[in-house]
Amino acid sequence: MLRLPSFTYLQPRTLAEALGMKADAGPDGMYVAGGTDLYPNMKRRHQEPRTVISLMGIPELAGCEMQDTGCVVGACATLSHLIAHPTMRQHYDTVAHAAALVSTPLLRNMGTLGGNLCLDTRCNYYNQTYEWRQAIDFCMKKDGHICWVAPSSPRCWAVSSSDVAPVMVALAADYVLVGPGGERVVPAARCYHNDGINYLTKQPDEILRAVRLPQPDGWDAVYHKLRRRDAFDFPVLGVAAWVRWETANVAEARIVLGGVASWPQEVPEAGGALVGTELADDAIAAAAAAAYRPAKPLDNTDFDLSWRKQMTRVYVTRALVELRQRRSRALTSTPESRWKS
């Protein structure tokens, strides 16, 4: 049985108190929300903080509120809360859908929005017990000096496995970060590095306070996920597709891939192929081909890597076809038919 190491557990009641505790603890302190990522990592000795600072009792990190500029969601809102929240279901159904695809109901009851957005990168050579990793002489992500996925590489290739992060990048959401120097707002896309070790631009002493979602005005988005077991597995491919419509044509579009790189990977060429179109078959095929080219999954998660690369084209196509069908229904439905449905 894997056991947690000894640590001191602190429960601040305000953001200021939490920041003060982290300053006192220094590098040996870590924040925790639901703990569904940190505690298993601690059991495997990936992370070994001596002080764990819980964020779950801080009212400033909770809630979900519509404002004039959009919706503000507290980082400690649980995934189950997002799935059931009326605002999410009515205006941000893609966020709710992505949250519903994370793991199992028990873990969604504990796991938080902020936790999923800051999820540690994963790799078959990293997410193992200490003894297993010691037997292969460790990897560069923890205690070693070599990436076992690409031994000649100077960097770690562990994969971003968040379901909600690609959606936030596609929606152009903003992250509100609070640290010793005050508050700053960072676009979701700029919160991630394509590096398996240094995968966040958020500093260790900063807290993700909230996520700002854009006003639901003229755009639509979907998220599709590939995994072996639909009940609970991490994604080996995630596709978030976002379009902003002007009448029947696409004015803007973003395609973001998860599970194929160390960050949620936007493919601008794929979105550009859709602009000015009605999402006809040829435009969808061009976007899927554009997304396929830079997708470079490695042999560090599930399934054959070449098959996973092929699935990029398939899943982008499925996502865009769904967006086209949703737009068609919206244009042809009447207020009466919407009420009856």
Topology:
Elements: E1 8-10, H1 15-25, E2 29-32, H2 38-43, E3 51-54, E4 64-67, E5 70-74, H3 79-84, H4 86-91, H5 93-100, H6 105-110, H7 113-117, H8 130-135, H9 164-171, E6 174-179, E7 182-187, E8 207-214, E9 219-226, E10 237-246, E11 249-258, E12 265-266, H10 268-272, H11 281-292, H12 305-332, H13 335-340
Parallel strand pairs: 1-3, 2-3
Antiparallel strand pairs: 4-5, 5-8, 6-7, 6-8, 9-10, 10-11, 11-12
Helix pairs in contact: 11-12
Short description:
33% of the residues lie in helices and 21% in strands. The protein is α+β, with helices and mostly antiparallel strands. It has a domain at 218-341: CO dehydrogenase flavoprotein, C-terminal domain (Enolase-like, domain 1, 2-Layer Sandwich), CATH 3.30.390.
What is the CA-atom radius of gyration, in angstroms? 20 Å
| End-to-end Cα distance | 51 Å
Indicate the CATH class of the domain at 218-341.
Answer: Alpha Beta
Mean pLDDT, rounded to whole units? 95
**Count of DSSP-assigned helices:** 13
Strand content: 15-25%
- Uncertain segments: 336-341
Element-level helix/strand string: EHEHEEEHHHHHHHEEEEEEEHHHH
CATH topology of the domain at 218-341: Enolase-like, domain 1
Helix-strand makeup class: alpha+beta
The largest beta-sheet arranges its strands as: 4-5-8-6-7
